[in-house]
Amino acid sequence: MDWDDLRVFLAVARAESLSRAGKVLRRDAATVGRRVAKLEGDLGQPLFTKSPQGYALTEAGSRLLSHAERAEQAVLSGADELTGQSGQLSGQVRIGATDGCASYILPQVCTAIQKEHPELELQIVALPRVINLSKREADMAITVSPPQAGRITVQKVTDYHLHLAAAREYLDRAPPLTSLDDLHAHPIVGYIQDMIFYPELDFLTGMGIEKVALASNLVSVQLGMVRQGGGIGVTHDFILPFAPNLRRVLTDEVSVTRSFYLIRHEGDARVERFTRVAEELTRGIRDEVARLEAMA
Fold first, then answer.
1. Distance (Å, rounded) from C-alpha 222 to C-alpha 204?
2. What pTM was computed for the model?
């Protein structure tokens, strides 16, 4: 069994599809299928159960998965050791994040990191749901809700703050707004309730607000609605510098604090590229949140 066989196996195990694995490997699905069949023949047992829904690991496949992941980490670690003698990082690192962090924090932070390491390729994956590290949707992720299970490490990065905000033009023509009770006379902008994947993002339930006039699963879309005078929404303080026509309201009655966490594969601590990017990413996010919040 060679490393290339394991690479194919890992890609299919994570993608649960020959075609999706082929895209990752840059090979056609038929070639990937032949490699899987050959590996199964060499081992004398099936590694996947095939169905119209895709490829699912058998018990033997599940046992091989942990060994294949350790081999992958050893290869990555060895490559980093050979190429990292100059102190410069190279290779690809994919970072998953909630859309608020991905849109308003990571562009500045990742650009600064890449300028320091020109051979480094940083990719930002913005998803309005939980990033699946076990399927290598990302090498590391910034989340607002630390996972409680899995072979991962969790590190708190920083707190951030949110307040109610509205467009100044909206407030000039809107009904009075002096207390939480007054919110019922205003249209509210927020998340689509059944598409909130993190309980930490369910801001409005605690305020007793059940009806949302304008909703989206994306922070950037909610911000656009508020900026257009669509109503009042819970807005990140670090986003306010990007929306100068917004003004915070009811700050004495509503102030929300949440946290960003960095999650990583447990075994990636041995890969210098991932470890150093994680260190610079953590420091950069902490500094950028503080800088933007000070401008709010």
1. 14
2. 0.74
